[in-house]
Amino acid sequence: MKVEHLRHIGKQLFAEIGKTRLKPFTSESLGKGAGGDRTFPIDKKAEDIIISSLQSLNEPLSIISEEAGLEEIKGGGRKVLIDPIDGSKNAITGIPFYCTSIAVSDGDSIGSIFMGYVINLLTGDEFWAEKGKGAFFNGERIYTQKDDIFYLIAYEAQSPKNDIPKIMKLLAEAWRTRCWGAMALDISYLAYGAVSVFVTPSLSRSFDFASGYLLVEEAGGVFTDINGKSIDSVEIGLKRSAPLLASGNKQLHEKALKLLNM
Amino acid sequence: MKVEHLRHIGKQLFAEIGKTRLKPFTSESLGKGAGGDRTFPIDKKAEDIIISSLQSLNEPLSIISEEAGLEEIKGGGRKVLIDPIDGSKNAITGIPFYCTSIAVSDGDSIGSIFMGYVINLLTGDEFWAEKGKGAFFNGERIYTQKDDIFYLIAYEAQSPKNDIPKIMKLLAEAWRTRCWGAMALDISYLAYGAVSVFVTPSLSRSFDFASGYLLVEEAGGVFTDINGKSIDSVEIGLKRSAPLLASGNKQLHEKALKLLNM
C-alpha cells in the first residue's frame, strides 16, 4: 500500500465523479450508512470505486468506511479509513466543495495512522502525507501558517444552535471565519497554510479527520481535541469520538484554547 | 451587449485564471482598489481581461469596477458593474472558491439592472439572468427553494466579532450554516436552490451583489436589505451601501426577518 495506490484511486474518482453537478434535493437517500449519516448515490458510487480498487491490490486490509462500515480483505490487516464523499451535503445540493479522504493505519488508534490522502473532487487537487516524510499538495511540500494571527478560522457545526455559541469567543477574534461544509478539506487547507485554526465542537468520527490529522502533523501544525488533549489514543472506528481543534502552530493553538475556555 | 458577450468574457477568464493555484500569502498587494479592498495581481489580471473585452464591443459603456473604479467607453452609456474576483481572500490563499461577477444596468439604481452574470472560476460553471427572462445555470432554467425550512443559511461577515452576534438568532435556526467567502457565489447558489437564506450584516458595495440580485429575483426569490426594505432604489456605485438579506421565497424571508429583529 503506497501513496501511489491512493493517488490512482483519487484520479479514478475525479474522472468519474468530479464532473457531477447535482441539482439541489434531486438525489434520493439510499438509507443510513454505517457512520450514521444518510447515504446518497454519490457516496455509494465513490465507495464502490474505492473498495473495488483496494480489493484489486490483493493485500490483507481492514476497511472502515462511512457507508459500508467494516469490510475485511484477505482476512483483514492494516486499517483503511474511508470517507467516500466528505461534504456530502454540498455534493447533493450542487455546491462544488467536497472531497474524498483515505487514511491508512497500522494500529487501532489515530496515532498509528501513517498515510493520509485527500482529493478535492472539483479541482482534482491532491493532498497527502506520510508519517515522518512530510505533507504535500500536488507533489509539493506544504507547511502550516507560521505566525500567531487568526487570519482565518474555519469551523464546522452539526448543530449551529448548540455549536456556534461554544466557539463564539474564538470566532470573534478571527479576521475572517469560514464554514465550507467539508471537514477534510478544511483541515487540508490548514495544512496548506491557508487556514489558521480549525475547530468543530461536534463529535466527529475517526474517518472524518484521520487523513487531516496526519496532514497537519506533517505540515508543522498541532491537532488535539477541543480541550487541548492529545487524540493519538482515540480509537479508530465508526463511532463519534471527539470534538476537534487544529492550528497552524503551537502559539495559535494556545491562543485558541485560551479563548475556548474563557 | 448580450449574455453571449458576458459568457465569452467568462470563458476567457476561466481559461486564463481558472487553473491558478496560489500559495497562501505569496501574492503581494498592488495597493488599494477603488472599492477600498486591497488589489492583488489576480484581481488586476481579471479586470484587465474584462475591460479590454468590453472595449472591443465598441459600445458606449460606463464601467464601475472594484479595482479600477469608473471608466467610460465611447463617452459612457449603460452601466457595467464588475467584481473581477469575488472571493479574493480565498483566491490569494489558494482556496478554490471564487468567481467573477458582471451586471449591466440601464439606470442609476439596483432596480435598473437587466443582466447579471457569474462564473465560478474553478469549475467554469455559469449563472446568468435577464430581466423578465429567468435565471439560468449552464443554460438550464433554475429556481429558488420552494418550502420554508432553513436547510442551509449562508452568511458573510467582514467583522466576525460585530457581525455574527447580529445574525446569531437566525443562524441558530439553520440545519446548517455556511460561510464560503465569496458573496456572489453564495447568492448564485441561493438562486440555484441550494441555499435557503443568505445574510450579511456588513455594508456591501453594489458590484458585490448586483448580478446576484437579478439572479435571485429571476429565480423566484426575495432580495432586500437586512431590515426587509427594498434595495431597488439603492444607487449603483463604489461606496458601501447596504447590509443584505436574500431568501428562496417570501415565507423564508419573513421568518428570517422575524428572527433578525428579535
UniProtKB/TrEMBL annotation, chains A, B:
Q: Which InterPro entries does this chain map to?
A: Inositol_monophosphatase-like
The domain of life is Bacteria
Q: Show which residues constitute the signal peptide.
A: none
Q: Where does Mg(2+) bind?
A: E66, D83, I85, D86, D208
- Biological process, per Gene Ontology: inositol metabolic process; signal transduction
Report the GO molecular function annotations: inositol monophosphate 1-phosphatase activity; kinase activity; metal ion binding
* Cofactor(s) needed for function: Mg(2+)
Pfam families listed in its UniProt record: Inositol_P
Q: Which UniProt keywords apply?
A: Kinase, Magnesium, Metal-binding, Transferase
The protein's name in its UniProt record: Inorganic polyphosphate/ATP-NAD kinase (Poly(P)/ATP NAD kinase)
Which organism is the protein's source? Dissulfurispira thermophila
